[in-house]
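Worked problem 6 (solution included).
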Amino acid sequence: MRALTVTPGVADSLELRDIAAPPPEEGDVLVDTLSVGLCGTDSEIVAGDFGVAPPGQDHLVLGHENLGRVAEAPAGSDLAPGDIVVGIVRRPDPVPCGACAAGEWDMCLNGRYAEHGIKELDGFARQQWRGQADALVKLDPALQRVGVLLEPTTVVCKAWEQIERIGQRAYFAPETVAVTGAGPVGLLAALLGIQRGLEVHVYDLITEGPKPGLVRDLGAVYHTDSLQDSQVRPDVIIECTGVAPVILEAITGGGQNSITCLTGISGVGGKTPTDIGDLNRTTVLQNEVIFGTVNANKRHYTSAAAALAAADESWLERMITRRVRIDDFRDAFEQHDDDVKVVLDFQDPT
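Solution. The predicted structure is:
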C-alpha cells in the first residue's frame, strides 16, 4: 500500500512509497484512511528538524491529524465497519509513569511516550492503518468532511479545560477572550470561546483571504492591530502563534486575575527584550496565571468531537482551504497566501 514517508533528520526526504500492510499486532481495528491534515509540525519533520522513526526503521510514515473509516472491527467492540473514526496521536510510555498510568499521557513525566507520525510510531498518511479500539474515537457521520479537524480541536479543548480548572482557584466569571493568531488552532480556540458564550477577539496580521470572514462569521471580533493598541483587557488570553513578540504581548496584556495559555511553540535563539521585574510585579499584583499546554488525552478527543458536532459544519468546511489528492502531495506542502488548513485526501471526494 502507499504511504507518505520521510527519513527523520534528512531534509526534503518526503516520498510516496509502497509499504507493507499494517500487521495485526498494531491493533484489532483496521481503518481505511480518508484524509490527513497538515500542520507546522509536519513541515518541521519534512525539513529534517524533528521526528523519530519507529525502532528498526529508517523511515517514518507522516501524518498525525487524521480521519478514517473502519474496515474491520472485533465483535463486542463499540466500533463497526463504516464508522468514521480518528486515531489518538500520543500513546502512553511503556513504563508507565504515574501520569500515563492514570490515562494522562499528554502530561507524561519521563518523555518515553510515542506519537503517531512524529515520534517512534508510524503516522496515518497511509492507505490503511490499525489501532486498538480504545485508541480510536468515533465521530458523528455528519463530520465526514470536517472530522480531520478533530486533532487540532483536542489541543484547544485541553487548553480550555486547563483554563477553567485554574479559574476555580477563586472567583471566575470571564467575559472577554483574546486569541492571538487566526490559524487553525486560533480559529478553533475562538470557536470554543464562542460556544461558551464569551466575547472573543482574534488578532492576526492578515487583512485579505478567508481569515477575517471566518472570525466575523463565528461572531468574534477580528483585529489587525495589536492587543495593546486595541485596549482590550481580556480575562483569558490564548496564544496560538509561537511568535516571541506576540507571546510577550499576550503574557503582559491580560486584565486583573487573567489567565494566559500558551499553545504555540517558538523557535529558539532570538532575543525579545523585556523588563522581567515589571513582568513579575504585574503578574503578582494582578493574580495572573501564565501556563503552557500541548497534546491531549482521550477525554479531550471526546469533548472535541462534541464541539465539532455542535459547530456550523459549513464554517468548519471553510477552514479547510485546500484539499490535495495524495498523488499531488508535494503541492500540499507549497504555502499559498490563502491557506488556513490544508488536507491530503486519500479517497476520491464525495
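Discussion: The longest strand covers residues 29-37.
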